[in-house]
Amino acid sequence: MIPANPEWLPAGSAGLVALSLGVAVLATAWPRQAHRIGLLGALAVTAWVLGLSATFLHAGPDPETAATRVALGGWEAPLGLMLQLDGLSMTLLVLTAVVALATSLYSLGYVHDRIERRQFWPLWLWLWAGLNMLFLSGDAFNLYITLEVVSLSAVALVAFTGTAAAVSGAVRYLLVNILGSLSFLMGVVLLFGEHGVLDLVLLEARTEAGPTERMAAVLMTAGLMLKAALFPLHVWLAPAHGSAPAPVSAVLSGLVVTGSFYLILRLWMGVFAPLATPAFGILVGLLGVGALIWGSLQALRAGRLKSIVAYSTVAQFGYLLVAFPLMLVDPGAWRVVVFFAVVHALAKASVFLAAGTLQHAAGHDRLAELGAVLRARPRTVFALGLAGVSLMGLPFTGGFIAKYLLLEAGLGTVLAGSLIGVLWVLAIAGGGLLAAAYVLRMVAPAFHRGRRDAGEAVSPWMDWVPLALATVAALAGLAGVLTLNTLALTPGAP
Amino acid sequence: MSLFYLAAALFLLGTILLGLVRVLRGPGSGDRMLAAQLFGTTGVTILLLLSLALEASALVDVALVFALLAVVAAVAFVRQHGLPEPPDTPIHRQPPDTPGPERHHDDR
Amino acid sequence: MNALLVLFDLVLLAGIVGVAWRCLASTDLFRAVVLFITFGLLLALAWVRLEAPDIALAEAAIGAGITGALLLVTLERLRSIMAERRSGRPHSPPPDPTGPHALLRALHDPLPEHRTFLPALSFALVVGGLLVTALWHQPQSVGLEPVVDAHMDVSGVDHPITAVLLNFRAYDTFLELAIVLIALLGAWSLGRHDLIPARPAPGPILPGTLRLLVPVAVVTGVYVLWAGSHAPGGAFQAGAILGAAGILLVLARPRQLPMAPAGPLRLGISAGVALFLLVGLYGLAAGHGFLGYAEAWAYPLIILIEVAATLSIALTLVALFVAGRPAGDDT
Amino acid sequence: MIANALTVILILAGLVFFAAGTAGLLRFPDVYSRLHALTKADNVGLGLVILGLMFQAGGPADILKLLLIWVLVLAAGTTAAHMVAQRTWTHGEFESDR
C-alpha cells in the first residue's frame, strides 16, 4: 500500500472540485452519453473522495493543523479565495459521495427514458458538484455562489417531470430559495462591509458581538433555515417532494437540506460563535421541539407515502435544533449532532429511494391503496423498514447510536443543573416514539392479509440500491467512532 | 458647469416620475408602452448628463447600450409569439377566470 | 453640488421604492411589467450613483434588452393560455401537459389571497430599520481595494474589477457562468420547443431598423468585451448585449430562421465553462493552482476565456428566451 | 466660455422638449396624439442635449459616440412609435391586460 502523504491534500481538494466540475461539464456538452459519463464520473468522484479521506485520516493527528487550506489560482486570502478541508467537511464529503453514488446507480434504473436521461444527468451532476464545492468552500461569498449552484440545479430537478404539480412545487421551492439566498447574501455584504474580508478564517478572527454581526447572523441564519426547511420555515418541503422524481427527493432530503444545516453549524461554530447566548439557545431548542411535534403529526396525517417521508424530515431536523442548547452547555456535542445528521441523511435517502420503487411499481403513492404492492415486494419493504428503524433509533442501528449520544448530552445538561434540559431529554425520547408511529404506518400494510400485486416491473437497480443504502444506514453505528474521530480533526472546534 | 448638468439630470428624473402617472393610469397597453419608451430616452439623456457631472466617461457606454436596446421591449410588445391574428372585436375586460380542472390537490 | 447630489439620490431612491411598490401591488400584469422595466432603468441610475458602472452596464443590457422582452412575451403566452382556458377549447397549438405551458399555468395559479399587506409592510419596516441601524454603526471600510491595487501589476489586466473577476476570484466567476448554464438546462428539462412560424414583417420599418441595429449591436458587444480589460465592461455585459441582439432577431425575424442544431448548440452553450475549466486544469497541472495563470500568460488566457464566455452567455440567453429545448435534442 | 454658453442654451432647449413630451403624454386624450407628443421629446429633446454635449466632448471619437447614440434613439423611437400605433390600430385602444 502506498503511504498517504499529507502534501497530497491540497491538490486532492482542488482536484475533487475539478473532477466533479469536469464530469458535469462533459455531461452538459455531450448529453447523448450523459448516463455513461455520469456513471463513470460517479464512480471516479466516489473513489477520489474515499482516497482523500484515507489520506486525510492518515495525515492529521493534530487537530490544530488538520485543516488544509488551498489558495485557488495561487492567491491567498484575503485577495483570493480559499478552499478548506477539515474533519467536518471531510465527513460531509464522504456522506455526499455515498448517498450520491447510491442515487446515481438508482437513477440508472429510474430514469430509463432515452430523452429524459439527457436532461436528468447533467443537472444531477451539477448538483453533486455544487455540494462538493459547498462543503469545501472557505469563503463567505463563494459559499453564496455554491449555494446557488446547488439550489438552482435542485429546483430544476424538482420540476424535471414537467407536470403542473411538479412545476408548481418547483416554483415555490425556487421562490423560497431565492429569498433564502438573498437573505444570506445580505448578511455576507454586512460582514464584508464591517470587516473588509470574506475569508471565513479571517472573518472569525475579526468578529465580535456587535450590531452588524447580530444583523448578519439573523439574516444568514434565517435564509439558511428557510433552505434547510427548519421549522417553522418548512412549508415548501412537502409540495416540492410531492411530485419530484424519487432520486431527486432522496438527494433533496438527504443532502441538499443537510448542506444548508452544515452551513448554519459552520457559521455558528466560527464567525457567529461570540453571539450564542443561553436564551438564544433555548429559543432554538423550543423551535426544535415544535418541529418534532408538528412534523410528526403531519407525517401521521399525510395520505401519501412521499409526504410522510417529507414531513419526517421536518420532524427529524427538530433534533438538530434541540441539540443547539445542548451544544452551548457541552461544546463537544456538535460532533454528535453531525453524526446524527449523517445517519439521518443515509436513512432518509434510502427511505425515499424505496418509496420511489413502490411508487413506480404501483403507479401512485397513496398509502391507502398501496397494500397489494407492499405485500408483493418484501425486499423494498425491508429496505423501508430497515431505514425506518434507523430513523426511529432502535438499538444497534446508526440512529440508535446517534440518539443515545444526544440523550447523553441532554442528561448531561440536566445534571449540570439546567431545568429546561428535562424538556430536551423528553423531546429526544418522545420524538423517537412519534417516529416509530409514522414508520410503522408506512410498512404496516405489508403485514395485513390481502391481495398481492407486484405492479409494474422495476429494474434491478431500483430493487437493490435502496436495500443496500438502508443497510449502510443501519450499520453506520459501527462507523460512529470513526466519524467522531474524523470530526475531531476540525480546528477551532471543541 | 457640473452643477448645471446635475440640475438638468434631476429635472429629467422628475419628468420620469411624473410620467409614471401615465403608466399607472393606462388605460391601454399602448399608452404604457409609450411611456416606457419615453423613460428609456430620458434615461439615456440622464446618463449622458451624469457622465459629465460626475466625470465618469464610462457612463457614455451605459447610455449607448440603453440606446441600442431601447427598441427590444417595443418589438417584443408588438410581435409576441402566441399573438392571435387581429380579432374581430377588441378584447374587453373579462370576468375573473374560473379555476381550471387541472388544479392539483395537496393532501393535507 | 453636494446638496444637489443628495437631492438627486433622494429623488432616485423615492422613485425606486415607489415603482417597486406599485409594481408589486399592481393587479394588472402588463402595468407591472412596464413598471418593472422602469424599475430596471432607475436601478441602472442607482448603480451609477453607487460608482459601479460595470453593474450599470450589465443592468442596462439585461434590463433594457432581455427582461422586458422576456416578460412581455411570457405575458402574451400566458394570455393566450388563459383565453384558451376560459373558452374551454384548445387554442393552437394543442396544449402539452408537460411543456413550458405547465410552467406558465403553475405561475398563474394564484396564491391564496390573504390580507398580506400590513404584515408584509411591518416586516419590511422592521428588517429595513434593523439594516439601517446595522449600517449606521458600520465603519468606513475600504474592503479589499488596497490589496487588489497592490496586485494589479501581476493581474494581466488594467481594470481592477476584471482582475478580481477573472484572476483573483476566477472560481466565483466560473461558478456564475455555470449558474447561467444550469438555468438553461433547467428550462430545457421542462419540455421541447417547437419553433413558432415567423410572421411577415408589417412594413419596411422594422426590417430597416434591424439592419441598422444588429450590426451596431455586434460591434458594441465586441467593444464592451475589449473595453473590459481596462474599463467597465467584460464578458457578462458583452454576452448580454449580443444575446439581446439575438433576441431581437428571434422576435422580428420575417421568415423562418433555421433551427439551431442540437449538438453544436450544446457545445456552444458549454464552451465558456469548458474552456475556463481546461485553463484551470492547466493551471493546476503547471503548479499555479487550480484556476491560476502564469503571470506572463494571464492576459491572453483571460481574453480567451472572456471570448468563449461571451459567446456562451449570448447563446444561453437567446436559448433561454426561446425556452424549450431544440427538437434535435430528442432524436 | 462661448462653448459653455452654447451647451447651457442647447441643453435648456432640450429640457423644454422633454417637459413638453411628458406634458403631452399626460394631458393628450388618446394614444395617437400622445405618441405624437413624445416622439418630439425623443428626437428633438435628445438631439438638442447631444448637440450641447458635443461642445464639451474630448475628441472626435466621443463626438461620434454621441452621434451614434442619437441615431440609435431616433431609430428606436421611430420604430417603437410606428409599431405601437400599428398594434393599437389593429387590436383596439382599450384592450384589457388582466
Kindly list the characteristics that best describe this protein.
heterotetramer, A: mainly alpha, 74% helix, C: mainly alpha, 2 domains
Molecular structure report:
The complex is a heterotetramer of chains A (494), B (108), C (331) and D (98). Chain A is mainly α. Chain A is 74% helix and 2% strand. Chain A has a domain at 279-494. Chain A is built from 19 helices and two strands. Chain A starts with 7 loop residues before the first helix and ends in a 6-residue tail after the last helix. Chain B is mostly helical and 108 residues long. Chain B is built from three helices and no strands. Chain B is flat, with a radius of gyration of 21 Å. The longest helix of chain C is centred in the N-terminal third of the chain and has 35 residues, at 53-87. Chain C is built from twelve helices and no strands. Chain C has helices at 2-25, 29-49, 53-87, 100-108, 117-136, 145-150, 160-168, 170-189, 205-227, 235-252, 262-286, 298-322. Chain C has 331 residues and is an all-alpha fold. At the A-C interface, helix 1, helix 4, helix 5, helix 6 and helix 8 of A face helix 4, helix 5, helix 8 and helix 11 of C.
How many helical elements of chain A?
19
Number of strands of chain A: 2
Strand order of the largest sheet of chain A: 1-2
Helix- and strand-based class of chain A?
Answer: mainly alpha
Q: Helicity range of the residues of chain A? A: over 70%
What is the overall shape of chain D?
elongated
Largest sheet report of chain A: 2 strands, antiparallel
| Shape descriptor of chain A | globular
- Rounded to the nearest angstrom, the distance between the terminal CA atoms of chain D is 55 Å
Instruction: Note the gap between the termini of chain A.
Output: 33 Å
What are the low-pLDDT stretches of chain A, counting only 5+ consecutive residues below 50? none
Q: How many β-strands of chain D, per DSSP?
A: 0
Q: Beta-sheet strand percentage of chain D?
A: under 5%
Secondary structure elements and their pairing?
The complex is a heterotetramer of chains A (494), B (108), C (331) and D (98).
Chain A: H1 8-29, H2 34-59, E1 68-71, E2 82-85, H3 87-110, H4 114-136, H5 140-158, H6 164-195, H7 200-206, H8 211-227, H9 237-242, H10 246-269, H11 278-301, H12 305-329, H13 334-362, H14 371-376, H15 378-392, H16 398-415, H17 421-443, H18 460-475, H19 480-488
Antiparallel strand pairs in A: 1-2
Chain B: H1 2-25, H2 29-53, H3 58-78
Chain D: H1 2-27, H2 31-54, H3 60-91
Helix pairs in contact in D: 1-2, 2-3
